[in-house]
Input
Amino acid sequence: MDAVMDWLSDWAAGVNWFEFVSIPFFTGIIGWLINWSGLWMLFSPVKFYGFKVPGLREIATVIPRKLQEVPGIPDGGIGWQGIVPARAAKMGSIAVDKVIAKLGTPAEFYAQLEPEEIAAHIVRVFEPDLPQMVDEILSREHPRMWRDLPAPLKQGVINRVQAQLPNVVTTITDEIGVHINQLLDPKIMVIDHFRKNPALVVRVFRDVGQRELNLMVAFGFIFGFLLGIPVAIVDQTWHLAWLLPIMGVIVGWTTNALGMWLIFEPPEPRRILGIKVQGLFLRRQAECAEVYAGIIADDVITLERIGDFLMDGPRGDRTRHMIATAMKPAIDKAAGPLRGAARVVVGAEKFDNIRESFAREAVGRTITPFRDPEFSRRQSAKIRVLIARRTKELPPRDFVEMMRSAIKEDEWMLYAHGAIMGAAGGFIHLGFFTWGWIPGFPPG
Output
């Protein structure tokens, strides 16, 4: 025991206590800067900023795979784009695979939107335009007959078409519901929307996990300070200048790794030394689920976007054909008992052209109410309830993957950034306290 005390006394006598005390504070500040700048790297800038290098795109295919993941390099650019917006499409894919696909099928989403209410809304929007559409089609397809037809008979045709409209529209919305799993692909829809709107992916992270991200920055100082204590002991024991930058690498890497662990690990509650431990993000699963559901329902899986996908997506031709097929009987029913005579008067081919024209022009008008922003907002509340309920029910491990999986393969960039900043901090400390960078302060 006396030998140990003598060693400690000799060690303390050789310590530069000002330099010793400065190291934990220095590493604490560096830790804070590492996590603060790491968050900037995650989210900013939303678009790539840099410059193209001739030939880099070809070289990028043969360099180590990790370097190929650096934003800009696969496209032959040197610069930076936030990791999250750069991986927007990947985030969309994982959001579907890990979360949205488990929340329900397209048919379940469609059922939540209440097809009966959609049909009623389509009729309300379509009905006032129907007389003009009938007039335009018949004036174009058979101008002489339609011009010579007495006004009461014209109105009778229009009235019969209008009378058929509710039944026809209901048939259409029912047909969409029956075939929605073939017509709507949530994965393609979500990936395409995230790819086109990388700022939305940033918003998902920030709105859902901003509290945890702020804590990560704050804990950067705490972790850096605590890790600086053994660094100070090592530095003042061996007095080797090259040790500080090397220890800085370890501190920087570890600070970022601990910050990520603090937020996401462990997904399930555990007891370590009698203390309940769980990732900070997981502790607010219910609250975060509400925020996430609001973003998805208001900006991603909306009635407007469903309508756009149904009409203009990769399966839009099938949707248009299905609607047109459902609309054609409206003309037959409008003609009623005069259908046979009408075919004789205008000719079978002309009559069929009228049916085709009516069906074709009605397609766009039928789906237009899907794109009504106000109606879409009202319907999105139902989607929000479904997503929030299912997200709250997700196992914690699946819930955390919703946020982390898209960036997990790129976390090494954050750790490498921390290591570089840690090494830089070690050199700066040496410059201040060993190499005499501080005016009036003698080198150690």
